[in-house]
Amino acid sequence: MADEYVNQTNKNRRKEDERNLPFNDKRDEIVQKVLKNQVCLIRCESGSGKSTQLPKLLLQSSVCENGRIVCTQPRKGAVASLAAKVASEMKQTVGDVVGYQCGVQRKISEKTKLVYMTDLALLNYFLQDELLNEYVCIIIDEAQERSIYIDILLGMIKNLLPKRKDQRICLVIVTSTFTDSKVFVDYYDGCPVITVSDAVNHIGIEWIPRTEEENYENVEMKAVDKVVEIHSMQPVNDGDIILFLPGQSEIERCMQTLQKKLKDKSDHWILPLHNKLQSIKLNEIFEKTPPKKRKIVISTNMAEAYDTIPGVKYILDTGFVKKIQYDPVKKEHSLKLIQITQSSANQRKEIARKSSQGKCLRFYNQNDLNMTTIPDILRIHIGHAVLKLLQLGVNPCSFDFVQSPLTKSIETTLQELSLLEAVKDGKLTELGNWIAKLPLDPNLGVFVHDAVMHAVERDIGVEAIIIATTSTFSENLFYRGGSIQQRDECEKLKIPFCHNKGDHLSFLNVFKQWLDVPEEEKVEWCIKNSINDRTMRNIQDTVLDILYILEKEMNISLKLELKHKICDERALRELLFKAFQQNLGYYLGHEKVGYYFVDRDKDMIIHPSSSLRCLAIHPKWVISEMVLNTSRTYAVNITEVDEKDVMKALERKELLFKIEDIRQKRLREEPIHIEYVGHHLLNEIVGPDGGNVQEIERKLQKDNKNVTFVVEADKEKGEILIYASSEKNEISVDSLKMVFDPMRKRIKDEQV
After folding, report:
1. Does the fold of domain 673-751 match that of domain 204-377?
2. 603 bridge partner residues
3. Helix axis angle, 2-11 relative to 13-20, nearest 10°?
4. Do 247 and 300 meet the contact criterion of CB atoms below 8 Å apart?
5. CB 637, CB 474: distance < 8 Å
């Protein structure tokens, strides 16, 4: 019996306490607070054992006498590994006293008293039992991450607590940041706080504040110089170095700079660490540093996910991170460079906690840190969150969020879901309830639904699931890194997978070929083709999860079998068009201006990662999955749409525009004006980075509303060519004179 085992392990508690520090000193306080309060907040540092020792501590107490403890995790990969670790420490097998549930993977028995699961899995459990009667204690681990599922879960549990006073339930929120805790305390009406600190190895912090004049590039160079200084001044066996930078491009730039600065030395091993790395490269981070060398790791915030990296003593933190931000008004995603939070700064510092004399150098002021985490509910598209709330029977407009998104954001999302026919009169439709069960964005959910339910005779359900899932992970699918030569080589390796109808079918090509490779050869195949093997595993796991949901929830049985199967690609493109009609784009006749997206009334170019860019193909009509704003506005994940499908949608009144108005926006094939300026002057006019050409385009655009311009330089002939979407007689003569008269004057002056 599980209770007998718990009692037996209590006898050995003192012996285990030696391994459970720092929780040993707080054991009695934690148990008493949990028994006396419905909500407790526990603040503890990264690496303190909070994910294993805290659940085990409560398991060995009287907390779970009348039910189970559940401990949630934000990442699927942590669920099984944590359960295995705790079970091993208790000399048990997984599935007995300690179990887990994650997607299709489930190891729970009648004896199980501690269950690890993802935040989403527990959220879905509310659909089976809105009172969670099976559980007497809920531990929300890593609450500081503030994912959408964590925030919804905290709100659902807050609503549950008053309903479970007869059959008591307690909530334990675990966070590794001290500043975010105030948000939780206020939300739960002043719940008690317990602080567990790891005082074993204090890490020295040195602040290197930046001045008001310094931008990110200055900070980056200071940090690189500091790496060189440490490496030159300290013995190589003194400890390894990790440098935190915002993104992959910054990492690759700094790697090249470091290689140049250390070119006369062979006593270093420089390694990148970011999400697009293949697992074989990732594993090198944790390998033992070779003799007479120092490991220098250059990482994004990805390293924050690790409790420690063996051998690291010096942490250099530039204090920046790149985050995606969604604008519900513009309906665009932006990649922004922002200051890290105090939580992130602490996690970065703790990487060296196993070093006896770790040192953290921070290239910012203490006041520069964002004191609280921006929750995902305020940062990303909330389409799936709104679907999930409606599925749970909750009105998203009146839901008690930890921090509520803007009313405009919720209203816009409900409008989008109404257009997809997933919501009607503020409630889920049959379609909405169907797609709410899938771990996909609503549009991709509709695409899968239509493929499975309305295209049965075409047998494209599995392919649609693969496309939707791969699209979700597409950012990290292909590895593009290293020098310019290496990136060019990676682009060549991508071409065989590129489909001439766009990205979604290219993703399908990748997965189908990967699936055919024998299991023991998959990693090598990914390396050979410059594909991220970890991403492929995540895609496969999610595909299997969706197939499991379809069978369990909807009684639909589909098999992941694609060998020798002929796919109806035309049908898939039709359904993608239907799911993303609001993101329809028309080619403007020149890759420089790209596509005019009708609903947005905006020009965008195709993202450089697109298979259509690789193949230099420019279809007349396309749909885009999302819009990303960086240095330019990009359309991401593109598929060609047949014009006859556009015409049918117009006939059915699904699209509301005049086709003639759209066609008039296309650039004329012949230039409206050619100006000879000579070879010498041309280089000056164009500028080193083409910036002057863009300025000419802006001037022309300003004086000629609703006209698109492209300015090109013909270096062989010394000419400037202007293309426009209108005839020359429709263009303002004054605007052309204003652009070219100064050039003509300079030519005359030079001749004189």
Report:
1. no
2. 596
3. 70
4. yes
5. yes
